[in-house]
Specification:
With 277 residues, the protein is of the alpha/beta class. It is built from twelve helices and nine strands. The termini are far apart. The protein binds ligand C2E and magnesium ion (3 copies). It comes from Albidiferax ferrireducens (strain ATCC BAA-621 / DSM 15236 / T118) (Rhodoferax ferrireducens).
Length: 277
Amino acid sequence: QAKDAGRNTLRFFDPDMQAVISARAEMEADMRLGLQENQFLLYYQPQVNHAGRLIGVEALVRWQHPLRGLVAPAHFIPLAEDTGLILPLGQWVMEAACRQLQLWRTQAHTAQLTIAVNVSALQFHGESFVSDVLATLARTGAPADRLKLELTESLLVKDVDGVIAKMVALKAHGVGFSLDDFGTGYSSLSYLKRLPLDQIKIDQSFVSDALSNPKDAALVRATVAMGRGLGMMVIAEGVETQMQRDFLEGEGCLNFQGYFFGRPVPVAELACFLVAE
Ligand code: C2E
Ligand code: MG
Ligand code: MG
Ligand code: MG
């Protein structure tokens, strides 16, 4: 009878599903180990103004896995978010970015650069988020007004008043805020009016289609007008060609990020953007 029950139970396990579950469990264990063994690193992607001058960078995490090689965030951030590992990982990213800002503040040609850090919803909604960021800034000595936090619209669907309160608390210290992937989520115009945002990032999906699809072009135009009208800096991401860049500038978007200007690179490779001035 026990054998029958066992056989019945087994029927519920689809072997494919089991493979997925164990792959995820293995990856989670790997990620924990990776955090302990310092296998994560930051790449930095240039952000430039209309004159092509470097104004800042976005920190983009990578995982130097001992067997898989360099792993892109799309392969581990979702699992990190599901398992809560995004909390220690996000803290590591914040710490590493702040250490870099502290190194940059002492040299004239890097002192004005900002670093944008992506923040997950789970991280931002965590009780100690504000105090964690402030403690990291204090511990590293990084200038708060060079740190920019990138939030996504998905983070805003829950507790907008709480989100605003946290933003205001950090902004009081000089920390800036950017709305990432704008137009791909669910933000309403009334939120946009209330949130103390410094910057809005036009999502790369609109940028990549703007030259071929008049509807994307119209959305880019409207986003630029809205962002500027609200007093926000507008930056386009995923700019890959001169034509896209020129179109954006024509629409009044004066800040850019994308492969056309530079891919995400280890910090040492940013040097060429700095001496180019
Ligand atoms: P994101 O914040 O929207 O970052 C922009 C992504 O677009 C980056 O991918 C970047 O490499 C890519 N990109 C930049 N310019 C171009 C371009 O011209 N063409 C194309 N096709 N792609 C471009 P990446 O580094 O793979 O990161 C993917 C996403 O992973 C990020 O999207 C962000 O949502 C997330 N992520 C990365 N680092 C972190 C982190 O430290 N914490 C959290 N929570 N999420 C992160
Ligand atoms: Mg981002
Ligand atoms: Mg983005
Ligand atoms: Mg994105």
